[in-house]
Design a protein that fits this description.
Arc Repressor Mutant, subunit A; about 65% helix
Length: about 80
């Protein structure tokens, strides 16, 4: 039985990026240490470079969801 992947916590994201900032290890070594894929570590580094944030910006999701619900209720 195959399970869908689950999102990693913001705490894990921050710990990985802080370890990388302190020059502790390379992407593959950090990936092994935190038990994630090295592609995930690379993705975090790219996201942080683009946004300047360590944690995931999930604050916009409730707004999108509420706007979608408003549109649905207006249509009925």
């Amino acid at each position: 039985m195959t399970r869908m992947g689950q999102a990693y916590s913001d705490d894990l994201r921050v710990r990985i990026l802080e370890a990388e900032e302190h020059g502790e290890d390379s992407c593959p070594v950090l990936a092994k240490r935190f038990r994630v894929s090295w592609e995930y570590v690379r993705k975090l580094r790219r996201q942080q470079a683009a946004t300047g944030q360590k944690a995931c910006g999930s604050g916009s999701r409730p707004q999108v969801r509420s706007c979608f619900i408003c549109r649905l209720t207006r249509q009925t």
